[in-house]
Design goal:
InterPro entries: Ankyrin_rpt (IPR002110), Ankyrin_rpt-contain_sf (IPR036770), Cul2-RING_E3_ligase_SR (IPR051616), TPR-like_helical_dom_sf (IPR011990), TPR_rpt (IPR019734). Keywords: ANK repeat, TPR repeat. Pfam families: Ank_2. ANK repeats lie at residues 147-179, 179-211. α15 (262-275) runs antiparallel to α16 (280-292) and α16 (280-292) packs antiparallel against α17. The chain is built from 20 helices and no strands. The protein folds into 2 domains: 19-233, Alpha Horseshoe (Serine Threonine Protein Phosphatase 5, Tetratricopeptide repeat); 236-359, Serine Threonine Protein Phosphatase 5, Tetratricopeptide repeat (Alpha Horseshoe), CATH 1.25.40.10. The chain has helices at 19-23, 34-45, 48-59, 65-71, 85-91, 95-104, 119-122, 130-136, 151-158, 161-169, 183-189, 193-201, 215-221, 225-258, 262-275, 280-292, 296-309, 314-326, 330-343, 348-369. The chain is rod-shaped. Helix content is 62%, strand content 0%.
Length: 370
């Protein structure tokens, strides 16, 4: 349950609660009016017959029991100031009283106390608890308290996995922002691995920065090695998935290239480039596809990109020379083949290509001279 006295985080004040308090809500202090005290006690005990009788007494024959019970609030307990009978019934798992208040009296299920906290925050989250009942009857899982904290922040602060799972299952937004960040920030700052895992499984933003702090920074401040490892792992997963996808596309492209299906191979290499735009081999292989399709201009563009990425790779020079040969720039081709041969003097393919380029250049010049 909630307590305004809390420890401070390294980055911002903690939420107004502690785990022990949210799990065990003490009865409110006796109020000045004994009748009101009895109403609250009956709600706490889930004594529905007594609770109904007391509500009728409280109504004093006006025929407006809803108004009478909604106006009834804790006033003499600083921590629980503004608590309604529904807050107390929800916190004590008094399901019969909750049903009576919500379904018969049509009490507002989102009544707030002085701190802006609804009954749902204090409800019990185990199977058959009042939390699920309130959510099924219109309780708002997105409602923030006066400090801007949402229910999911409280659940993350406490590491209550059942509470987090239920809120998310009922449609709670996974990344609401408060002064302390998102629920993932809060769970990381508390070292709650299980809570973090659930939030991440529901696509919580692990890179979200709030007030200059990311969840990973919060986990480091908490000295939680387990939480740090989890965040590092999820940050690496998208990169690994991209690498795997790119590798699969490259493999399919290589098969198509061997089968001389150059159009398909070029498309596959293009898709792989979107995942891995810095792979010089992809540009070399796609350049080869363009060469075989007779597109010297595109072949040269890819070959030039490949050479820029890996200026000392002989094959990049070879690809440039081949593209220039297709474009009938024999002088340029000879220069590129010569560059490649300087890098790898024993490459017979480049040596043969250079010989052919120089022969073509000589023939071209002879033709022009006539």
């Amino acid at each position: 349950m909630i307590d305004p006295t809390v420890s401070a985080s390294a980055h911002s004040p903690s939420l107004t609660l502690t785990p022990a308090q949210i799990l065990t809500l003490p009865p409110p202090a006796p109020v000045r009016d004994p009748l009101l005290d009895m109403v609250f006690q009956a709600a706490s005990d889930d004594n529905l017959p007594r609770f109904k009788a007391l509500v009728m007494m409280l109504d004093t024959g006006r025929g407006r029991p809803k108004e009478a019970i909604e106006e009834l609030r804790v006033e003499d307990d600083a921590k629980l100031q503004g608590f309604s009978a529904l807050h107390i019934a929800a916190s004590r798992c008094s399901l019969e009283v909750c049903r009576y208040l919500v379904e018969e009296l049509l009490i507002d299920v989102d009544l707030v106390d002085k701190e802006g906290r609804t009954p749902l925050l204090f409800a019990k989250y185990h199977n058959g608890g009042t939390a699920e009942y309130l959510l099924d009857h219109g309780a708002n899982p997105h409602k923030a308290n006066n400090d801007g904290a949402f229910l999911l922040h409280y659940a993350a602060e406490l590491g209550i996995c059942e509470m987090i799972e239920l809120l998310l299952a009922k449609g709670a937004y996974v990344d609401p922002v408060s002064a302390r960040g998102t629920p993932l920030h809060v769970a990381a700052g508390g070292g709650h691995y299980g809570a973090m895992k659930i939030l991440l499984d529901h696509n919580a933003d692990y890179n979200k920065m709030v007030n200059g702090v990311t969840p990973l920074m919060a986990a480091r401040d908490a000295n939680s090695t387990e939480c740090i490892k989890l965040l590092v792992k999820v940050q690496e997963e998208p990169m690994l998935k991209r690498e795997i996808a790119a590798s699969e596309l490259i493999s399919l492209g290589s098969i198509s290239l061997k089968e001389k299906d150059y159009v398909v191979a070029a498309k596959l290499y293009s898709q792989a480039m979107q995942l891995d735009p810095d792979d010089a081999v992809l540009f070399s292989d796609r350049s080869l596809c363009w060469l075989n399709m007779g597109n010297g201009r595109k072949a040269l563009l890819d070959a030039n990109k490949c050479r820029k990425m890996r200026p000392h790779w002989p094959k990049a020079c070879h690809r440039q020379g081949e593209a220039l040969m297709l474009l009938k720039d024999y002088e340029g081709a000879s220069e590129r083949f010569l560059d490649g041969l300087k890098l790898d003097p024993v490459d017979t393919d480049i040596e043969d290509a250079l010989r052919e380029a120089m022969k073509s250049l000589k023939t071209s010049r002879s033709t022009k001279a006539k």
